[in-house]
Amino acid sequence: MLKNTCLILIVLLFSNLAHATFSIVAVDPETGEIGSAGATCIGAEDGAIVISDILLGKGVIHTQSFYIPANQNRARTRMELGDRPAEIMDWLDNNDIQNNSSQRQYLAVDLINDNFNSAAFTGPQCFDEFHHVSGQNYAIAGNILISDDVVTDMETAFVNHKGPLSDKLMAAMQAAKRIGADSRCTDFDISSASAFIRVARPCDTDSSLGQLPLDINVWVSSNIFEPIDELQTQYDNLPKIDQCPSDLIFMHGFEVD
Questions:
Q1: How confident is the model over 19-68, as pLDDT tens digits?
Q2: CA-to-CA distance for 182 and 186, rounded, in angstroms?
Q3: pTM (predicted TM-score)
Q4: CB of 22 within 8 A of CB of 172?
Q5: Confidence band (pLDDT; 50, 70, 90) for 239?
Q6: Taking a C-beta distance cutoff of 8 angstroms, is the pair 166, 197 a contact?
Q7: Would you say 116 and 110 are in contact if contact means Cβ atoms under 8 Å apart?
Q8: Cα 165 from Cα 210, distance rounded (Å)
Q9: Using one digit for the tens of pLDDT, what is the confidence trace for 84-117?
């Protein structure tokens, strides 16, 4: 009971400082899927998942570290207006709602007309350890980390794992899992206190939280457990996600997967 109470106190103490201590955004240019996953040592329903902002048909943006909804909304507006990820990073750096982008961390990837780009930004006053990486179709970032390896291991797993986008995102989250991945959770022998994974298909019409075909969110409440393992369990137990009608292949007059 004491351990649980201490965890709740830690969650409350840091809840206004950082969300989604480590996270990944990615797209699959072959299927048109857009993905988002992350975790933090904030044990609440809106702990990590609050930063997941998928724009259907466009891309996904995470704003984390001293999270402010207004900055997330501004990032969404820039993507809706057609800015590419690097342009969004520059704009947010220069237009922080509190004029203090030095404490923020942003990552974004888009997928528009078969063209995809990614970018990430980390202010120098984020809490140690902080790090970000980006590749052609993904960006990964973290702060308050036990080490930079959390981010680099996520990248290695994502790039090397074979399979659909959802499997690659789950592999990245598993690669991040270690005691104290979010260093605030070290004393409780867990990586984090909440975690999520989300994937949108080209045919989806509602990307609000809980409405996508893959939309899992877990968080520690009264009992301490490893959120990434619970995320994996729920992911493994999901039925196969149906393809969009446009993803089906027609051969000799028959519709086949």
A1: 569 999 999 999 999 999 999 999 999 999 999 999 999 999 999 999 99
A2: 7
A3: 0.89
A4: no
A5: confident
A6: yes
A7: yes
A8: 18
A9: 999 999 999 999 999 999 999 999 999 988 889 9
- The percent of residues above 70 in pLDDT, for the chain, comes to 88
Phi, psi torsion values for 2, nearest 5 degrees: -60, -40
Q: Residue 172's closest CA among 148, 151, 194?
A: 151
pLDDT of residue 19: 59
Angstrom CA distances, 110 to 36, 72, 106, 122, 205, stand at: 12, 16, 14, 19, 17
Alpha-carbon gap, residue 130 to 42, rounded angstroms:
17
Peptide bond into 155 cis (omega under 30): no
